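Attaching the record inline, Q. Sequence:
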Amino acid sequence: ISFFENYPEVKYCYESRRRRAFSTPDDSSYSSQWGLSASNGINMENAWNLSDSSGSAYIIIAVIDTGVDYTHPDLKNKMWKSRLGNYGYNFINNSNDPKDDNGHGTHVAGIAAAQVNNGAGIAGVSINSKIMALKVLDSAGNGDESDEVEAIMWAVRNGAWVINMSFGASTYASADDDACAWASGRGVFVAAASGNEDSSAVSYPAALSTTFTVGAVNESGNRCSTSDWGWDAYGNPYGSNYGSALDAVAPGNN
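Structure, as predicted:
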């Protein structure tokens, strides 16, 4: 570089930088994923086109939920495996099989890291990252705090870099707080959903200071409310919780 810079006809000289092709995923349902590419989405294509922003293969995302369908065609190649070949752990029946029997955890895992450019299904946000499946909710979507706490600690001890919890409760719990603080103190990014009760009070563990609290917005960029989600069979409203504990909102409708 110094040699060429000495010539008066050389305007500047530096080492050639690498480039990579820009692309739109070929997954069959990608066009319907408004949350990734539409005006009120997260502009994911521009993010993918930045260097080193496609999610590293060594980043393990622990989905603490109803389990994950690790045979799903959009997830089977994205699963983390232990040294024994397990995809995670089932805290409901204390087994090494975290197979989803509800669907919620599989849905969450797909948004996070469904396989991209396989010509099928959807495109996950984190292209190269792996999913660790930790089942703490049963087939009806219910579970215990004790299993949640165990799962958080299990995830950290087994190498998770990110923990996602799309569940919660309205009351504070000390063990819940301690587990999230313990994980956060070890450099693990802990994300939690704000809750779906259309309330100004964010649910726990999302309300904790050591979790990154995420609410949901619709295609218009407005908070998801009963006009989007309606009411349950008992007349209770569905809508994304909000309040001072909220850190961010993300596409969360349809």
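The first strand starts at residue 60 and ends at 65. Confidence is low (pLDDT under 50) at residues 19-23.

More tomorrow.
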